[in-house]
Amino acid sequence: VPLPVPRSCLFSESFVVSVSSQSRFLASVPGTGVQRSAAADMAASTAAGKQRIPKVAKVKNKAPAEVQITAEQLLREAKERELELLPPPPQQKITDEEELNDYKLRKRKTFEDNIRKNRTVISNWIKYAQWEESLKEIQRARSIYERALDVDYRNITLWLKYAEMEMKNRQVNHARNIWDRAITTLPRVNQFWYKYTYMEEMLGNVAGARQVFERWMEWQPEEQAWHSYINFELRYKEVDRARTIYERFVLVHPDVKNWIKYARFEEKHAYFAHARKVYERAVEFFGDEHMDEHLYVAFAKFEENQKEFERVRVIYKYALDRISKQDAQELFKNYTIFEKKFGDRRGIEDIIVSKRRFQYEEEVKANPHNYDAWFDYLRLVESDAEAEAVREVYERAIANVPPIQEKRHWKRYIYLWINYALYEELEAKDPERTRQVYQASLELIPHKKFTFAKMWILYAQFEIRQKNLSLARRALGTSIGKCPKNKLFKVYIELELQLREFDRCRKLYEKFLEFGPENCTSWIKFAELETILGDIDRARAIYELAISQPRLDMPEVLWKSYIDFEIEQEETERTRNLYRRLLQRTQHVKVWISFAQFELSSGKEGSLTKCRQIYEEANKTMRNCEEKEERLMLLESWRSFEEEFGTASDKERVDKLMPEKVKKRRKVQTDDGSDAGWEEYFDYIFPEDAANQPNLKLLAMAKLWKKQQQEKEDAEHHPDEDVDESES
């Protein structure tokens, strides 16, 4: 019999299934022969369909239809028309006990079948037990829970449902038994303990609840469990018991926050002495290695509430001296607030100093050889600390010796020793320690590689201030013997000069000149000393010895000093000879000019003539000089001399010797030899130079041609004036 097919079921698998199920149903249900034949016919037609494949109709128009229907639309229409909704099963009303037993039997069989299919699905066990509980079959429900626990005794939900069932049905002893088994089997599940203690407390069995808590605490549970026990005791005003629990709690969980809670518990119940002891025990317990700022902040706030301001200040300072800066931000903040509320200006300054001290401590810990940080730290400590504390910081600083023995690495380090010695002398007023500091620093410096003259000088000056002249001389003598330097010689000589020990000065100068014979200044100072002492011959001998040295650092200064010395002694001939000797070594223009000025200033008869002769000689000598600017300088000096002392003919003569200034160009080359263009420069052409005569003649002809061209241009611009002049 063909069945009507709904449009929504054309592409549905459920339709095929429903058809096949209907056929099986008709074949299985006992009835009339018509029904059987219909089923047989349908089966035969199906078998024939399998054998004979119908022809597929050819689609002539393969273009898409105007209205497209998707599978989603088909399913949505089927849902909207409710074509596949099944009617709800009919409600069955049980009227007698037999039907009830039959219903129970079927239900239990269903539950047992589900359990038999998969024993590990605990939800099936729980549903089964709850169904039995709903029928008031408590014994059966217990049996089901016990069977389930045999399957999975680690399931927390199973234990909870089991115990809740017993409590709902007021089976207290059974519930206790279940909780005991649960906490014995799974002691780390806190939920069992919470439920168990709550049940005992609700039943009013305080002793039993306490006993359960004690059993729980033996397992050392998490912090919340301890707090629950403490709150339980406080609900019944058992403060001593709560204190005992806290004592055990802070040992099992030794965190700072737990010690603080313990102390606040004592403070809340007005046991202030106990609270202070708790804080003190906490500080001692954590020690210096595990210090925490929160503990000290809480301790300080407790003392602040007790109006113990001095104790608060001591606590803050103690903590700040031992906790690193990055871990003490909250501590600094609270200390500052406290000082602003209860302290004076001095206290606020102490906070700032301590904060900066921590900052410097961190810097020097990060880099012990950062001497600038040590300097800043020492300045801070010196401004506000006792002598012992300052000495301790100095000792820590000077212990960081530079690892490399090079002077550039020691330049900053040596000032630590200098500042240390000055502090001991000026601030601490301890000369003996100052002497020890100087001596230790001088022993530390590797004098064979380099030295610091300032350390020797400062030590010697310190001994002089202490009126120990022998020690000062010994220090300077040792310095000259170990590591002679110009500065050490100068200071030692200056010291002996002030003491008027001239023989010692002579010996020192001799040593000085043996050490550095090229030092012109030392030669000059030695000669000046002999001049002051009135030993002219000795001074002259020193000058002679000096100018005979093969190498000098400033020979011009030495010659000038020697010449000035002879001028002061009014030794004109000696001075003239010195100039001649100097001109043999150098032909510098300044020497000639100075020589001429000397002859002019001598004031003797014929001085002008001698001066003019020197200028003429210098001019002749410098003709071959490549430095034309120096020659020009000489001529200008000569011209100024003739303008002041010479006649008109002398002036004209010098003017004829003055050069012409011309502008020239020359090629410029870079370092690699490539051309870099042209540059202009000024050159001087002297009339005296025979080689330059053609150049001067050409220059004169060029000037004449330029003048003629200028006159010609003027005549072209004013022709009428030329006619009038010709007529006239």
In brief:
It is found in: Nucleus speckle. The protein has 728 residues and is mainly α.
Structural summary, described in words:
With 728 residues, the chain is an all-alpha fold. Among the domains are: 103-344, Tetratricopeptide repeat domain (Serine Threonine Protein Phosphatase 5, Tetratricopeptide repeat, Alpha Horseshoe), CATH 1.25.40.10; 661-697, no CATH class. Helix content is 71%, strand content 3%. It contains 37 helices and two strands. Strands 1-2 form a two-stranded antiparallel ribbon. A hairpin with a 5-residue loop joins strand 1 and strand 2 (675-685). Helix 22 runs antiparallel to helix 23 (431-444) and helix 34 (628-645) runs antiparallel to helix 35 (648-657). The termini are far apart. Involved in pre-mRNA splicing process. As a component of the minor spliceosome, involved in the splicing of U12-type introns in pre-mRNAs. Residues 608-635 form a coiled coil. Its main location: nucleus. Residues 707-728 are annotated as: Disordered. Keywords: Coiled coil, mRNA processing, mRNA splicing, Nucleus, Phosphoprotein, Repeat, Spliceosome.
